[in-house]
Amino acid sequence: MSDGFDRILRDGTTRFGADLNPSDAHLVRARGDKRRKRKAAGSLAIALVIVAGSGTAYALGHPGRSAPPVSPATATAVPTPAPTATHTPAAIPDKTLQLGHLILRVPDAWRVTYRNAQGDYTVSTGVCAGDDLIGAAAGSSCAAFSLIAAAGAQHGGLPPYAPGVRPYTTSTGVTGCPDRTPSSWSRSTPLKPYYSGYSAVTSTRTADYTVWQFGCETGGTASTPILYFQQRDWYLPVSDILIVDEYSTPGLAQILAAATWK
Question: In this predicted model, which residue has the larger pLDDT, 85 or 96?
């Protein structure tokens, strides 16, 4: 038998033995591949369980331990800002008050405390009772507003009321301030309106609405004002009716807008 045949036979026997008994390197690689396959399969299983629920995944990943309870979602409370201080809110209207042709729905505490033959009224809104028109001019502390009939006509040497031109007054002399001793305090007449526009009085009438801001002085003439207050005027030119408020009566604008005309 030739040497070439013997060599072929030896080579084939060597390869056959290597297949039956792989070298250490081949064996290590094969085992590593198997471990990686098992690890990948295990990771895939855990990932699938995590999708279904994290508590189950915890149990599978740590044999012998129970899954921790899943806490319910908690809503975070949004803090409510503290209310800001405002003027005293108006009481809920619960009775009817008629001032000439004007019918108002007003709080129970409001009542007519002055009227005259000309059709003028004063409505007191607090505990005490104002007994004159524009009581603030005499320093009254009784919160009130007044309705003046025929305000556009001249009375007792006073010029007729003209919206936006001059504030309303009942005197040609020095007048006082709300809740201030008239002999010590006086009001300085503003040269122009603080605000001028329009406002509803009933659903069918629109008033000329003017706000005048007065300074209150004490200690002589030409002194610097120490405090301020506002006169609010609603004037209906066709009906020639003027409503004057010098106490910033809460809710009055809304009550006038909701009034009815008889």
Answer: 96
Same domain membership, residue 164 and residue 47:
no
CB atoms within 10 A of CB 147: 22
**For the chain, what is the domain count?**
2
Between the alpha carbon of residue 234 and those of residues 92, 185, 203, 239, 250, the distances in Å are 22, 26, 14, 12, 15
Task: Using the predicted structure, report yes or no on whether residue 151 has a pLDDT greater than 60.
Answer: yes
d(CA 212, CA 229): 8
Q: Is residue 67 part of a domain?
A: no
Is the same domain home to 9 and 116?
no
Same domain? 31 vs 159: no
Q: How confident is the model at residue 94 (pLDDT cuts 50, 70, 90)?
A: confident
Q: Is the pLDDT of residue 206 over 50?
A: yes
Answer whether residue 104 shows pLDDT above 90.
Answer: yes
Q: What domain range is 41 assigned to?
A: 3-61
In single-letter form, the type of residue at position 179 comes to D
Could you tell me if residue 77 is inside a domain?
no
pLDDT of residue 9: 41
- Looking at the structure, tell me whether residues 161 and 229 fall in a common domain: yes
